[in-house]
Amino acid sequence: PSTSMVGTRTSSSGSTTDPGPTRATELSGLVEALGSPAPLTSQAAIDALGAMADPASRSDLQSLARHPDPSRRASAIAALARVERRPQRFIGPLRSRDDRIAGAAARAMATVGKLGRHVDLLDATVRRSGFAAQINASAALARHLPATRAPVASALLHHRKPVVRANAAFALGRLKVAG
Questions:
Q1: Confidence check: pLDDT of 129 > 50
Q2: For residue 67, which of 30, 95, 87, 42 has the smallest C-alpha distance?
Q3: Whether this model's pTM surpasses 0.85
């Protein structure tokens, strides 16, 4: 079969078939489900938009990243990391006192990279209380720490959490620096 015009396919016999919903229809259905009062429906829609990684969903995900429900906020931040390439978009959520939100923001920064100006904030996140934020911030540093900031990873070798220490060791190995 070959594509002859938008939204249709032409089979080898010359007949036209409908391939099903278009991407725009899928997006509009998901965007509608974002506002569902049922948390699981909204959550599934957020996850699906993130998986689609369609830039057209950016504004809806940015709005949800400010939602009052922390679980929806954290999911929207994680989904936004697939369409947003600027780490500064995640600075506000990284400062959140809610570990789910800060953890999602740190994970997003690990995905996006380009941490240069944000190393100190990620280092501070690793050193504060919580779990997800510490682990994900240390993972962001492990993946993207600039060589000039290797002492940050060296200091994390003495962190109380083994995963943070492992991420610090990974960073130093990636940078080929002795701890």
A1: yes
A2: 42
A3: no
